[in-house]
Amino acid sequence: MRRITTRAVAEIVPHQEFVDGLRSPPPGGLRLKMGFDPTKPVITLGWAVGLRKLRQLQELGHTVVVIIGDWTARIGDPSEESQTRPMLTAEEVQANAQAILRQFYKVLDESRTEIRHQSEWFDEFTLTDVVRLAARFTVAQMLQRDDFAQRYAEHKPIGLHELLYPLLQAYDSVAVKADVEFGGTDQKFNNLVGRELQRMLSAEGGGPAGQGQAVFLVPLLVGLDGKQKMSQSLGNYIAIDDPPEEMYGKLMSIPDSLIMDYFELLTDVPDEELTGIRKAVEEGGAEAMDA
């Protein structure tokens, strides 16, 4: 339990609710949602932080529900951008999704993974459904999201379709009956919108008032530049599919300040051994290379 709730964890909202779910899970285990927009066919080690946590929970009997954002990928989540992203075609999205799933299964247990596409429910959505969904939240609420607030303050454009992104991602949680949603810290706003939407619809449907998914946030892995989140668009990444020798070379190039983060977020080295590694890194020189 401690390994799951402390290491490689940034925040769990609400923490006790998640712990209670682990101790007394529903029949079949918890449904752990992780969505991705297949905007590119490659995933980085940054993704592996969340995937490794999900694999730990799969080993306890829980089910990972992977949402392929074949709708939101056409919008583009601006969470790591300061400007509007170009939309993708349906064909580009599907090709990227297949490539990404193959890489996911290098970490996840395929037998305990459920694959869902947003098009399963959004293909049936009417304009009326979209308006009703949008009516549940305000523009002021959407502008609380950091990247939107920054662009608004800087008088940079924000497309109306982008304001719908958190709502569409939130509805995914309703559609798959997610118990927990996983994401990086940059996804906190979107994940909490999902929790709130579930709470609204649960109460309206006669279910337990206030029932909604827990939110499990993992730290963002800093990229090879030692400054910003690992990202393909920034070119500071290591791909899960990189050849071993290339991956090794990139890992050897990271600043010493990142060594402990990489050990803690990407390996199963016991905590007591990390103490010795940390000392070696602090002493520098050959000891750091050995670490």
Sequence-ordered SSE layout with sheet pairings:
Layout: H1 2-6, E1 11-13, H2 15-23, E2 31-36, H3 45-58, E3 63-68, H4 72-75, H5 90-104, E4 113-117, H6 119-122, H7 127-134, H8 139-142, H9 146-153, H10 160-163, H11 165-176, E5 180-184, H12 188-204, E6 214-218, H13 244-252, H14 259-266, H15 271-283, H16 286-290
Parallel strand pairs: 2-3, 2-5, 3-4, 5-6
Antiparallel strand pairs: 1-6
Explain briefly what this protein structure is.
This protein is an alpha/beta fold and 291 residues long. It has 16 helices and six strands.
Structure in words:
The protein has 291 residues and is an alpha/beta fold. The chain has a single domain, classed as Rossmann fold (3-Layer(aba) Sandwich). It is 48% helix and 10% strand. It contains 16 helices and six strands. The protein has a six-stranded mixed beta sheet with strand order 1-6-5-2-3-4, with helices on both faces. Helix 12 links the parallel strand 5 and strand 6. The longest helix has 17 residues. The protein is globular, with a radius of gyration of 20 Å. The model has no long low-confidence stretch (mean pLDDT 90).
At the fourth level of CATH, the homologous superfamily is: HUPs
In terms of structural class, how would the helical and strand content be classed? alpha/beta
Physical arrangement of strands within the biggest beta sheet: 1-6-5-2-3-4
Report the order of strands and helices. HEHEHEHHEHHHHHHEHEHHHH
Tally of helical runs: 16
CATH architectural group: 3-Layer(aba) Sandwich
**CATH C-level label:** Alpha Beta
First-to-last CA distance: 27 Å
Return Rg in Å: 20 Å
Low-confidence stretches: none
SS strand fraction: 5-15%
Largest sheet: 6 strands, mixed
Question: CATH topology, anyone?
Answer: Rossmann fold
Molecular shape: globular
Specify the helix fraction band.
40-55%
Tally of domains: 1
Average predicted confidence as pLDDT: 90
Number of β-strand runs: 6
